[in-house]
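Internal tracking record. Fields below are filled automatically when a chain is submitted to the structure queue. Please do not edit lines marked as system-generated. If the sequence contains nonstandard residues, flag them in the REMARKS field before resubmitting.
Queue: standard
Priority: normal
Entity type: single polypeptide chain
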Amino acid sequence: MEVHETIRTMREMNQFTQEEMAEKLGISINGYSKLERGISKLSLEKLEQIANIFNINVSELYSAKEKGFLCFFSDNNSQNTNYYTNSDAVTSENEKLKLIIAHKDELLLQKEKEISHLTKLVALLEKS
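SYSTEM-GENERATED OUTPUT FOLLOWS
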């Protein structure tokens, strides 16, 4: 995930509009839109301003790029946790977990059938 994508994601998670972000940064809406789309280069000063708006460090804007995902935990006692991912690795892991759950369900069904079969055998043996 590129820095401009992380910024867009953080804006959306914080439910800010592009207009609100532009106002907070003291730039035009068009100028902010270009930053978010990766058309304009981000200066260190702008990155620091953006990080301050989201109450994070500038390095956290870059760590999402390296890791391929973004995790955001709110510090304002609202107990909100937001998670966004754009990572193929996480998607792949999710698919693996779905397969594991499906396999577990099949095993449980098989055990239920075996228990039913054994219950019938016990009943037959008790009659003899």
